[in-house]
Amino acid sequence: TVAAFIAEPIPVAGGVIDPPLEYLRRIRQICDKFKVLFIADEILDGFGKVGTLFACELYQIIPDILLMGKAISSGYFPLSAVIVKPEVYQAFLGPTTREAFLHGQTYQGHPIGCAVSLKNIEIIERKNLVENAREVGQYLGEKLKTLLNLTIAANITGKGLLRSVELKDKATGKEIPYLTGVKIREKAYELGLICRFQVNSLVMSPPLILTKEEADQIVDILKRTLVEAENRYF
Question: Which Pfam families does this chain map to (predicted)?
Answer without folding.
Answer: Aminotran_3 (PF00202)
